[in-house]
Amino acid sequence: MASRRVIDAVEKLLQAQGSFRTRDLCRATRLVRQGAQRQVAQLIREGRVTATGEARARLYRRAPEAAARFQFPMPGTDAARAWTTLARQHPAVGALPPAAREVAEYVLRELVDNAATYSGGKNLWVEVRPGDPFELAVEDDGVGLFERLRREVGCASRVEAAQEVGKPRLGACTGEHAGEGLFFVLRTADLVELDSGGLRLVRDRLRDDHALMQAPDRLGTRVRFAVARGRRVTLAAEVATWTTRFRITRGSVRVKLMEYGTHFVSRAEARRMLAGMDHLSDLTLDFAQVEGVGAAFADELLRVWAPAHPQVRLETVGANELVADTLRRTRMKDEG
Ligand SMILES: Nc1ncnc2c1ncn2[C@@H]1O[C@H](COP(=O)(O)OP(=O)(O)OP(=O)(O)O)[C@@H](O)[C@H]1O
Ligand SMILES: [Mg+2]
Q1: What residue segments make up the domains of the chain, in order of their start?
Q2: Is CATH 1.10.287.70 what the domain over 4-62 is classified as, yes or no?
Q3: Taking Cα atoms as reference points, which of 259, 257, 263, 328 lies closest to residue 291?
Q4: CB neighbours of 276 closer than 8 A, spacing ≥ 6?
Q5: pLDDT at position 174, please?
Q6: What is the pLDDT of residue 245?
Q7: 68-227: same fold as 4-62?
Q8: For residue 79, which ligand has an atom nearest its CA?
Q9: Quick one: which of 16, 27, 90, 192 has the fewest CB in 10 Å?
Q10: Rounded distance, CA 235 to CA 190, Å?
Q11: Which atom number of ligand 1 is nearest to the Cα of residue 149?
Q12: What averages of pLDDT result for each successive group of 10 residues across the chain (336 residues)?
C-alpha cells in the first residue's frame, strides 16, 4: 500500500490544483524522483489516481472510481459552494446522470445546511463513494442530531426524538427554517442512514422500510445516503408526490405559490420549489395572494438559482406591493 504520508500529500495536491506531476509530489514529500514514481505507481494500482501523458509531462488525476473525503471548515461553509467544490474536485460527481445528480445535489445541500446551522461543530466532512448506488456522507463534529432534537422538541430520550424524524415541521422551526429538510431528504434519496449519539435511523425509499437501531456512539452526526445511478424518477416528480403544486401549460411551467402557502421565507423552500426546474425554457412564478416573502427566499431564487440557470426564462407575476418590493431590492443587490 502507498504510505499514509504520500496519500495525504496527494489528496492535498488534488484538492489544491486538480492534478499533479511527479515533481509536485517530490516537493511535497521530499521523496526523490524514483521514490515518488514508485509510490504513484502503487496509487494507480490501488485505483486512487490515473495518469495521462508521457515522461516528464505525465499528469496524475483522481481516478473516477476512487473514494474520497473532503473537509470543510465551520462556520462559514455554504451549501451551494460545497456542492460546486465536490463537482469540481471529483470526476464521478460531475459524471452522474442528470436524475441522480439532481437528487444528490439537493440532499447534500440540505444536509450541509443543517450541519452548518445546527451542529455547532467545527468541522464538516463530505465523503464520496462512487459506485452504484452512488453514495455520499455528510458528517459533523457537533452536538448530534437526536440530542439537539430531544432538547428542541422536549422529549425524554433520544429514542423518542428519533421517532419524530420523518414528520414535517420537525424541530424548532425558527426564522427561515420550515422543519421540512429531513422530511424531503428521507423521501428523495434511495437510502438514508442517520447516525448520531448511539442511534441509527435507516430509511429505504425503494422498499418503503424504516428502522431505528443501536449503533456505536459517535461525536456529532453522520448522514449517509445513496442514489441509484440509473434512477428514473426525477426530484421534481418525487417532491410533487408530497406537494401538489405544478400547473403545466404549453411546455412551460407556471407555479402558483398560493397553492402551498402565503408566506415563503427560507432558502430550503425556494430550493424545493425550484427542484427539477433546471431543464425548462420558461418558468413563471405566480405570487397572487402570497402575503410575504423573506430575504433568504428571494435571494435563493433571484441571486443563487436564476444566475445558475441562465437558460430558464424566469418571470415573476402577481406580486403584491410588499412582495414586489422585496424582489426588487434583491435584484438591485447585483447592480449596486
Ligand atoms: N447536523 C445536525 N446537528 C444537530 N441537529 C440537527 C442536524 N441536522 C438537523 N438537526 C435538527 O433537526 C431539525 C430538523 O431539521 P430539518 O432540516 O428537517 O428542518 P429545518 O432545517 O429546521 O428546516 P428546513 O430544512 O425546512 O429549512 C433541526 O431543527 C435541528 O434541530
Ligand atoms: Mg434543514
Answers
A1: 4-62, 68-227, 243-335
A2: no
A3: 263
A4: 102, 234, 235, 236, 237, 239
A5: 79
A6: 41
A7: no
A8: 2
A9: 16
A10: 11
A11: 31
A12: 92 94 96 95 96 91 94 90 93 93 94 96 96 97 97 91 83 78 90 97 88 93 97 80 46 69 85 76 87 93 93 91 95 77
Checking DSSP bridges between strand 19-20 and strand 59-62, what pairing results, if any?
A: antiparallel
Q: 113 C-alpha to center of ligand 2: Å?
A: 6
Q: Could you give the angle at which helices 33-45 and 4-17 cross, rounded to 10 degrees?
A: 80
Q: Whose CA is nearest to atom 19 of ligand 1?
A: 179
Return the C-alpha cell found at 219.
Answer: 461525536
Minimal CA–CA distance to 102: which of 10, 236, 267? 236
Q: Where are the alpha helices (DSSP H) in 155-287?
A: 158-162, 181-188, 235-242, 267-274
| Domain covering 68-227, topology | Heat Shock Protein 90 (3.30.565)
First-to-last CA distance in the chain?
55
Superfamily of domain 243-335: STAS domain (3.30.750.24)
